[in-house]
UniProtKB/TrEMBL annotation, chain A:
Upper lineage: Bacteria, Bacillati, Candidatus Dormiibacterota, Candidatus Dormibacteria, Candidatus Dormibacterales
Protein's UniProt keywords contain Nucleotide-binding: yes
Organism: Candidatus Dormiibacter inghamiae
GO cellular component annotations of the record: ATP-binding cassette (ABC) transporter complex, substrate-binding subunit-containing
Protein name, as recorded: Sn-glycerol-3-phosphate ABC transporter ATP-binding protein UgpC
PANTHER family from the UniProt entry: MALTODEXTRIN IMPORT ATP-BINDING PROTEIN MSMX, OSMOPROTECTIVE COMPOUNDS UPTAKE ATP-BINDING PROTEIN GGTA
Gene3D superfamilies: 2.40.50.100, Nucleic acid-binding proteins, P-loop containing nucleotide triphosphate hydrolases
UniProtKB/TrEMBL annotation, chain B:
Regions that span the bilayer: 12-30, 50-70, 109-130, 142-164, 199-221, 242-267, 302-322
Keywords per UniProt: Cell membrane, Membrane, Transmembrane, Transmembrane helix, Transport
PROSITE patterns listed in its UniProt record: ABC_TM1
GO biological process terms on file: transmembrane transport
Cell compartment(s), UniProt: Cell membrane
Protein name: Sugar ABC transporter permease
SUPFAM superfamilies: MetI-like
Membrane topology of this protein: Multi-pass membrane protein
Cited InterPro entries: ABC_transporter_permease (IPR051393), MetI-like (IPR000515), MetI-like_sf (IPR035906)
Superkingdom, natural source: Bacteria
ABC transmembrane type-1 domain ranges (all copies): 105-321
UniProtKB/TrEMBL annotation, chain C:
Domain ABC transmembrane type-1: 94-292
Protein name stated in the entry: Carbohydrate ABC transporter permease
InterPro entries assigned to the protein according to its UniProt record, in alphabetical order: MetI-like (IPR000515), MetI-like_sf (IPR035906)
PANTHER family: ABC TRANSPORTER PERMEASE PROTEIN MG189-RELATED-RELATED, OSMOPROTECTIVE COMPOUNDS UPTAKE PERMEASE PROTEIN GGTD
Topological relation to the membrane, as annotated: Multi-pass membrane protein
Entries under CDD domains matching the protein: TM_PBP2 (cd06261)
Gene Ontology cellular-component annotations: plasma membrane
Family: Belongs to the binding-protein-dependent transport system permease family.
């Protein structure tokens, strides 16, 4: 069992192609850490450096106290679940799970115990003699997990393990993975581009963009206090509304409205951010009201989203499903100023 | 054949060879890896690849690259090894159009054009026709079967097909029997008559290789999405238009691959000619001429010069192939 | 199927019986079948002819066409086979063909598999250029190499060592050299298409280079390897030129093709024997081909119209 530390890690392919820039994260023992970001942000590379599949250009990675920059992949005591599962197509489920143990010259009886144990945990007992191609997507995914479990590694690496499953199975597997993490009591590092997976599964989330770590924190920290415009826009669905404003003292002035700020900010150009759920049909005490011209109404049963315009800006609101609205209507909505954000127009950093 | 000696000496030899050869090869790589693992960590990645490609590079260099260079040198020398400049080439390329290697060159051109075109045409026609019947795999393997037959046997088969008896006698050769029996014309001396024999030999070779072209073209045909053809038919295209405007353009890359392969086959043509005529009666080709110069005349310089002429003919194809290959690689 | 499609000629499913459309559809189907069966029949005539002839008595062969033997009264015989096997050294040649073909198949494919593995999954200096060079060598005519290689073998007395397999050594090595470029090309294309995740997973699992090669790459490449084995075996078994150059026509070493070629020259009038000999030489390739044609066909495709 071990912690993982990225200490000023850089990955550079050529002089001007740097895919991971000065990456610093400390992942605690037994933590479920999610690396999330859009594709090409460097999250997979960060994971693959830890796995030993990519060299580390600068900095160091430690597992526990041990620096592993020059340790071969097989000696790092990690296990990895690949997006494609990487099952050996010519081997049975049993042999797939036994392979990493055979490579470690483990006695046959011990291998058998471990494989049987993993297959029991994952409900694969009836499929041990099948080849991967005779399994469903969900079963293959579990074999890939099983191959990692038998190793009993210090750290589990999972590279987008759910993205080849259909939506329903993905939801179930999310829950199973969390249970598995709890039962195994091992460090999990999980890479995904899906913010829902990040929010639901991670003890903490590390959000990357363009090779740079944007923010690390618990899901609620990241949701409620995004460090910058990118994080704010990436997390949450539908995503946060952004409206250009000018701040002066305690107010932010938009094209057709003015919002009181909970905390004064100096005179600045900025971006006002608020989530759809902060803009509702209920008036909020001390809040502001916005006039919205509704373009599209989306009824989801439990919620109702209004897509429209405030001044010249596109805005989404989440209102009570019972509210009667049609496209083309003009509605007055209340903005909860306790959950608004202001970002610096130049640096995109959160000012509030 | 003496069965006693077969069982006591030859069979054991065969067994030793079948077991020994793989043992040596596997032994090489296992021992090599064993040594590589003794190296310091940092040196391994730079040494290991050469262990794996080394034998292949050695054989390709020893049997193809270096000999090609030596042959280039030999083509400028007499058989005794004295430098003679371009004499060998002058002798092979002199006396146009019937001296030196000119007959062979002319015949290789026949091969190049007729063999390639007919094989492609037959291959395409068969692939397209067979695609529409349910017993496709059966007819395909029947057409493909000659691929399993050696050129020597192919030569024997077609000598027999072209067998000639003077007019008036019973024709036992299939081709002449059809000519006299069904078409009521005179039989032809297919193999010896210089007016037709090249075409007869090429025809035999076309028969042998068409299955190869057909199989590849047929796979390309099946790779064309059915939607596309149905869309064209819905748009009102007749079957011929569909073939001309949709199928053929989409198969073009494959046709080019098969075509260049056939061009190389045509340039290297040897076995069929060697067996059917030995290059006599004006049917010589470059490869056969080279063989004759080497073995019957002991003229190494001349043989080398002929080989170089062959190489010169192949070079454009080679360049074309490499460009195609790079284009494909670039798309990966 | 949409109405528009059903309207087109050639899709016979919906036309009413004996309507003009139905008749024309039927007719074009008939034409298609006639063409397919006719062409295929024409294609097997040469092979059928020699097969039938090889079982006919000599007296009949020279006086009537082989097709007459297909009508009663039948008179078939195995005389031609027993005579030609008794009077020539076809039996010995049969053995020699195996002596040449088996190592000539195993050595280049094994070596090519090593090289293809390195070309597809290892990084080294000049890798892509060397591979390109090997693709280029594919087009070099073999003829170019005969003079220097042969004189090297002769000069170093490689053929005269006192071992029963020594006379075959040059032809094994030659077939290795000549077979490598195509084998490497085909196998490298195949190996490269294997998913890289498998290799990374194996690396994390702790598998070394040898383990990955023997336990993952080779088992996964069975279709490509099998087709290549068949290819190379047939090519060597059927080869005349390389055998003529490197083993020559001496009866104790000549393979079937060389012996058959010699017979064509010496048996000018013994044509009935030649047909039997030719068919005899075709037995092994036909067995190999018929039993493994699925692999054979797939293999050609792997090399040419991949992806």
């Amino acid at each position: 069992m071990a912690s993982v530390t990225y200490d000023h890690v850089v990955k550079r392919y050529t002089a001007d192609v740097t895919v991971v820039k000065d990456f610093n994260v400390e992942i605690q023992d037994k933590e479920f850490m999610v690396l999330v970001g859009p594709s090409g942000c460097g999250k997979s590379t960060a994971l693959r450096m830890l796995a030993g599949l990519e060299g580390i250009t600068e900095g160091e990675i430690r597992i526990g106290e041990r620096k592993i920059n020059d340790v071969a992949a097989k000696d790092r005591d990690i296990a990895m679940v690949f997006q494609s599962y990487a099952l050996y197509p010519h081997m049975s489920v049993y042999d797939n799970m036994a392979f990493p143990l055979q490579m470690r010259h483990m006695p046959k009886a011990e291998i058998d115990t471990r494989v049987k144990n993993a297959s029991r945990i994952l409900g694969l007992d009836d499929f041990l003699q099948r080849k991967p191609r005779a399994l469903s997507g969900g079963q293959r995914q579990r074999v890939a997990l099983g191959r990692a479990i038998v190793r009993d590694p210090q750290v589990f690496l999972l590279d987008e393990p759910l993205s080849n499953l259909d939506a329903k199975l993905r939801g179930q597997t999310r829950i199973e993975l969390q249970k598995l993490h709890r039962d195994l009591e091992t460090t999990f590092i999980y890479v995904t581009h899906d913010q829902v997976e990040a929010m639901t599964m991670g003890d903490r989330i590390a959000l990357m963009y363009d090779g740079v770590l944007q923010q690390v924190g618990t899901p609620s920290e990241i949701y409620d206090h995004p460090a910058n415009l990118f994080v704010a826009g990436f997390i949450g669905s539908p995503s946060m509304n952004f409206v250009p404003v000018t701040t002066s003292n305690g107010t932010a002035k938009g094209s057709t409205f003015e919002v009181k700020l909970p905390k004064p900010i100096g005179e600045k150009k900025g971006t006002l951010g608020f989530r759809p759920e902060a803009l509702t049909d209920r008036a909020v005490e001390g809040g502001s009201t916005l006039e919205m011209k509704v373009d599209v109404v989306e009824r989801l049963g439990s919620d109702q989203y209004l897509y429209g315009q405030v001044g010249g800006d596109q805005v989404t609101a989440r209102v009570d499903p019972r509210m009667k609205v049609a496209s083309g209507d003009e509605v007055r909505l209340g903005l909860d100023i306790r959950s608004i954000h202001v970002f610096d127009a130049e640096t995109d950093k959160a000012l509030l | 054949m003496n069965w006693g000696s077969f069982l006591t000496t030859q069979l054991p030899t065969l067994v030793v060879v079948i077991v020994g050869v793989p043992a040596v090869i596997v032994g090489y790589i296992v021992a090599g890896e064993f040594l590589v693992r003794r190296l310091p960590d940092a040196a391994r990645p730079s040494v290991r690849p050469w262990l794996w490609v080394g034998p292949a590079l050695f054989f390709v260099a020893a049997f193809l690259v270096v000999p090609a260079i030596l042959t280039a040198k030999a083509s400028l020398e007499t058989s005794k090894g004295d430098f003679t400049g371009l004499t060998n080439y002058a002798r092979q390329l002199g006396d146009f159009p019937s001296g030196g290697a000119w007959i062979a060159i002319r015949n290789n051109v026949y091969w190049l054009v007729l063999y390639t075109l007919f094989v492609l045409a037959f291959g395409l026609i068969l692939a397209v026709l067979f695609d529409r019947v349910r017993y496709e795999s059966l007819v395909k393997s029947l057409i493909f079967m000659p691929m399993a037959i050696s050129s020597v046997a192919l030569g024997v088969i077609w000598k027999f097909m072209y067998w000639y008896q003077p007019p008036g006698q019973i024709q036992t050769g299939t081709v002449n029997a059809i000519l006299t029996g069904l078409l009521r014309t005179d039989p032809r001396i297919w193999i010896q008559d210089p007016k037709v024999n090249n075409f007869a030999i090429i025809g035999a070779a076309v028969w042998g290789i068409t299955g190869f072209a057909m199989v590849i073209l047929s796979a390309a045909l099946k790779g064309i999405p059915a939607d596309l053809l149905e869309a064209a038919r819905v748009d009102g295209a007749g079957e011929l238009t569909v073939f001309r405007r949709v199928i053929f353009p989409l198969m073009m890359p494959t046709v080019v691959v098969v075509g260049t392969t056939l061009v190389i086959f045509a340039l290297k043509a040897f076995d069929v000619v060697y067996v059917m005529t030995g290059g006599n009666y004006d049917t010589d080709v470059l490869a056969n001429r080279m063989y004759k110069l080497l073995y019957f005349s002991g003229n190494t310089g001349g043989a080398a010069a002929v080989a170089m002429i062959l190489l010169a003919a192949v070079i454009p194809v080679l360049i074309f192939n490499l460009r195609q290959f790079r284009a494909v690689e670039a798309r990966r | 199927m949409s109405i528009a499609v059903a309207d087109r000629p050639g899709t016979a499913a919906t036309a009413a019986r004996f309507s003009p459309r139905w008749i024309s559809d039927r007719l074009s189907k008939v034409v298609l079948h006639v063409a397919v069966i006719g062409l295929t029949a024409a294609w097997i005539v040469p092979t059928a002819g020699i097969l039938v002839t090889s079982f006919r008595p000599f007296s009949k062969i020279s006086t009537s066409g082989w097709w007459t033997a297909l009508a009663p009264s039948f008179s078939f015989t195995v005389d031609n086979y027993s005579k030609v096997l008794g009077s020539s050294n076809l039996g010995q040649s049969f053995f020699n063909s195996f002596m040449i073909s088996i190592p000539g198949t195993i050595i280049p494919i094994a070596i090519a598999a090593f090289a293809a593995y390195a070309f597809s999954w290892m990084k080294f200096w000049g890798r892509d250029w060397i591979f390109l060079g090997i693709v280029g060598v594919l087009a070099i005519p073999l003829q170019l190499s005969f003079v220097p290689v042969l004189s090297f073998f002769v000069a170093h007395g490689i053929t005269s060592a006192n071992l029963s397999w020594a006379p075959f050594l040059p032809v094994w090595l030659a077939h290795t050299g000549y077979g490598l470029p195509f084998s490497i090309y085909l196998l490298a294309n195949f190996f490269r298409a294997l998913p890289s995740d498998l290799f990374e997973s194996a690396e994390i699992d702790g598998a070394g280079t040898l383990t990955v090669f023997f336990r993952i790459v080779l088992p996964l490449s069975v279709p490509a390897l099998a087709s290549l084995v068949i290819f190379q075996f047939l090519w060597i078994w059927n080869d005349l030129l390389v055998a003529l150059i490197y083993v020559g026509g001496a009866p104790e070493v000549a393979p079937l093709t060389v012996t058959l070629a010699n017979l064509t020259n010496s048996l000018g009038q013994g044509y009935h024997l030649l047909t039997a000999a030719a068919f005899f030489s075709m037995i092994i390739p036909l067995i190999v081909f018929l039993s493994l044609q699925r692999y054979f066909v797939r293999g050609i495709l792997a090399g040419s119209v991949k992806g």
